[in-house]
Amino acid sequence: MQKISLLILFVLVLSSIGNTQLSSKNITSLKKELYHLFNNYRVEQSLGTLNSNVILQKAAQSHADFLIKSKKITHDETNSKLKTPLKRIQNAGGDFLIVGENILEFETALIKLKEDQIKELANAVYDAWKVSKEDLKNLEFPEFDLHDFGIAQNTKKQTLIFVHLFSKTTYRVENQLSENDFGLKMSVKPCSGFEYEDEIYTNLGNCVYIEEGKVILEYHNIQHIKDVFKNSNDGFAVDLLSPNQFLCGEENKTDDSPIYDGILLKPVYKDELLRSNTAQSETRLIAQIGTIPESLMKDDFIPAIVIIKNGQACNWASPVEIPHKTYDPIPVDLQTIEEENVKLRNEGIIISKQVYFQFNRNAVTTENHDLVPNLKNPIHSVEITSYSSVEGDSIKNNRLHIGRAEFMKNTITSSNPTKNITIRASENWEKCNFQMEKYDMGEKTKFSHDSIRSILYNDSIHNWDSLFNMQRKSFALVHYFGKFNPKDHDEYVKMNFKTALIERNIPLANKALHELYKNKIPCEFLLEESTINNLFEFPNLVANVAAVLSLANDLNSEEIVRYVRYWLINYNQLEPLAKQNLIYLYSLTTKKLLKEWDVATSQLAKVLHPKRADIVYKTVEKYCSEIITLNYHIGTIEYYSQINDYSSIGEKFNYIDNYFKKAHLSSKDAENLALFYNHWNKEDLTINLLSYHMKEQTLSEEEIFIFVKTIMIRDISKHPSVNVEQLLNLAFKTNPNAFCEWQATYFNLLEDYQIKNFFCEKCME
Predict the structure, then answer these.
(1) Global pTM exceeds 0.90
(2) How many CA atoms lie within 13 A of 627 on its CB side?
(3) What value, to the nearest 5°, has the Cα angle with vertex 72 and ends 71 and 76?
(4) What is the pLDDT of residues 181-206, one digit of tens each?
């Protein structure tokens, strides 16, 4: 967005030519020659020619006369109405907003000149301006299409003063929704005041999209928004850009407003912005910042945003496609306990059926339960898990869960007699603790049971009646006996494990788990609640169970998360191998649970905080392979991203970065590392990495397009070694269709004339 005033001063002293004052005819001829010389230069540079303009001539002449009287060279005048080039143009009746001004003091004798001498003087003036790189910025600025001169003579000093003004024809985009730009004015100063403010504004441009006529802003850190936009009149306005504004063969049709380029939507200010936040996570912002009128819905727009501080527009951000991706965990072949001397059995538990019972408060009987299956196979055993909720006192609850267990036993054995019955009856503190952590009350789970009961009774925010009801849900697992068919290998191994677990045969259980892992047998049967509850009793199964669960399709299963959390908290019972495998499983589940950008607090609470997992990791760090360690950092960086813990993100980022840079990077490695940098808004690292590969001429097609798309969001002046034109040529040559499609989709990039000229030449032939 070029809403600027280019003001460049250049003073040059040249030798004399004669003795007397120039005539008005000489000055007219001199201007005519200068028009010709400057337009020839513009044509040579493939730029549009400049038309003379009477308003610019009037303003330039006024300032040239002022400079003679004031006896100094400056762009400013003392009269406030004429202080700047823009004000002088407005005073002359102009409505131009993009302005440039060059000034030249030329020492020469002032005489009436012949035609060939006029040309000689014009060429000398032209050469003097042309050698100045600063003056050329105005002369070569693509958007300028108007110019004119003011020339004044200082007879005492024998000098000529040249004032060269540039501007652009006024253009107003149609279908504006406000006659006064919704009352917005352009700030005289850019936005400032916050440490990372410029970076935040850059990223904001890529956080806006259109969905069913609504313009949505999704930003990863709501605290940034609160820090930067502190006042009630701070906010955003959407600037809708259309591809018709950037057509090849035509000048760009950006609005002459200093505030916006396209169609401005009504601003949204801080209070409304925060009020309309629909993000599930308390750290995120997802809010509507504009509505496209129905009359414009048929048009294709890209939404840029105007940054508003203290009621004034002070910055502007436009979206640019930035390819990005975080690393996925790297598969690991885990070590398991094999139990070589143990053989699998041919009979045992052939099938298991779960029967649920839902008890009301204070009740020890219920009709609300599943029917008990009546199979031909004899019952091998029954496992009963009976709960009371944590409300009430322990003595009363003890009577309730024991009474419920007795009712469940009688219900099941009345038609299926068996003596092999295991009963677990308790207050359901495990479920209660999990519920509390889901609702961000995890620290309070360390309190005494009586203190927790008091907290829950007084919690008016959450529906604890419903949560207590969930705690009372009890179940029985009925196991039926039969023979296994070794030919059905997968079921054969599963049945051996189930039998071993119920019979507490640890070697057989580990043997079966080893077979499950080695043969990659689906393990969803392990996720039954009763099975997980059983596994809580056996620390010597954790190494193999963690390995098998790492193969699960549903890694965000609540039962897997429960299992991982339980053993990370009770890690003192585990051997090093079990801890290693558990850390790997924790990394996988964390990454899986937090794969979405906007994760609800209740979802985040399912994951054990990495600072608690670190306690376990550090006890076994020296045993862990590099890949397990890498995966641990890949998983936990996602957690810290959800809570915007930048210190911990930095620590994890540096480890992952160093890991992949230690070895010689293949093309695919470099591509993934660049995407990783971009994911964490480290685009400068991407540019440095790919610049090196470009010099080495080892860029793949994927790297080339990552490079060319990434460079568009960064200040190219910070990377002087990057030849943008060479990079554009390389991208086009590598895949013309992909390049042209990208440029056409992000047509807002064509506001840059270098990019537009390249696109129009290559893609619109």
Answers:
(1) no
(2) 10
(3) 125
(4) 999 988 877 776 556 677 788 788 88
